[in-house]
Design goal:
2 domains; acyltransferase activity; Phospholipid/glycerol acyltransferase domain-containing protein; Plipid/glycerol_acylTrfase; Glycerol-3-phosphate (1)-acyltransferase; alpha/beta; 7-stranded mixed β-sheet; two-stranded antiparallel sheet; 328 residues; single chain
């Protein structure tokens, strides 16, 4: 090797020399260019991969909750014959875990919990996020601070998810025939319904439109059971998780087959604040259509009062560090 080449190798240093050897050995004339291109791909696609992977951690947390319930069931199966409250301990344990998750990851707050009655029925009507994780946090707060279990109405597809049945049974989740909803409220339970359901989860967006259509079933339930309706909305829920449901393919699949297959991305640790509005009392002179309209306006009022439109992920992240609310 000539003195000139040796001098050049010394100037390159060990990293440059390794690059030079690889170029010579592999016959690559521009190894640095390929490495730079690889760095660019990693810089672009790593954040994209993360935002689609984070929602899977919520699914993992749900399955860990289910695993805990199965262990709890096996450990306490001999007590079942002697106790009417077999699952109380399990519910409180999982509520504590979910409440901790909400506090750590989203700085979760709830405003108006005092509007949930300590006893007697009430129908909670809420806006449905892409993933209703805010509702899980709400359930945890009700269990821990009110000592009550809130029954829930969920879409049929949730009962087909492998392994979910025990979790749904323990937390009193059902697919919502009107008679069963009325029976739960007449028995003095709390009941929660999202009139927008899966459609709202998939097709609503950062402008927070309510996609209730002409649904009035929940209003009939409230009238038949003579229960008050309590509106509920969580600030920034669309900034935590977002859906690609508005892409034409996923929209068509849902409308054609009723399959909620749209990918969800996010998992961002944005600030979550749940707001409960004033109860809408039972009024025998109000029709189901009028009551449904009242409830929709009540939820919309919470959105208008507490959510900046359009939602913004960066702004929602910054709200973790200050307490300024949207101006009324």
């Amino acid at each position: 090797m000539s003195d000139g080449v040796e001098s050049s190798m010394a100037d390159l240093g060990s990293a440059g020399y390794l690059s030079y050897l690889l170029e010579e050995w592999a016959g690559l004339d521009n190894l640095q260019g390929y490495l730079s291109y690889l760095d660019y791909l990693l810089w672009v696609f790593t954040p994209l991969a993360v935002v689609f992977i984070l929602p899977l951690f919520i699914v993992l947390f749900l399955y860990l909750s289910i695993l805990f319930l199965h262990v709890y069931k096996r450990k306490n199966e001999l007590r079942e014959a002697y106790s009417y409250n077999l699952w109380d301990g399990a519910r409180k344990t999982l509520a504590t875990l979910w409440d901790g998750h909400g506090s750590i990851w989203h700085g979760y707050e709830i405003h108006g919990l005092e509007k949930i009655p300590d006893e007697g029925p009430a129908l909670i009507v809420y806006y449905h996020g892409a993933i209703p994780i805010d509702y899980y946090y709400f359930l945890a707060k009700v269990i821990l601070h009110k000592g009550r279990t809130c029954h829930s109405v969920a879409d049929h597809f949730l009962f087909k998810v492998p392994g979910f049945r025990l979790l749904l049974e323990v937390f009193s989740v059902f697919h919502g025939p009107r008679e069963e909803c009325v029976r739960a409220l007449r028995s003095g339970h709390l009941l929660a319904i999202s009139p927008g359901g899966v459609r709202e989860a998939l097709f609503s967006d950062e402008t927070y439109p309510l996609l209730w259509g002409r649904r009035q079933g929940f209003a009939h339930v409230a009238i038949e059971s003579r229960a008050p309706i309590i509106p509920m909305f969580t600030q920034n829920v669309r900034e935590g998780f977002r859906s690609l449901g508005n892409l034409r393919l996923f929209h068509w699949v849902y409308e054609r087959f009723r399959l909620p297959v749209a990918p969800v991305y996010g998992g961002f640790p944005v600030k979550f604040r749940t707001y409960l509005g004033d109860p809408i009392p039972y009024d025998p002179n109000v029709t189901a259509a009028e009551l449904a309209d009242k409830a929709q306006h009540a939820v919309q009022s919470l959105i208008d009062q507490h959510q900046k439109i359009p939602g913004n992920v960066l702004r929602a992240l910054l709200e973790r560090f200050h307490t300024r609310h949207k101006e009324e």
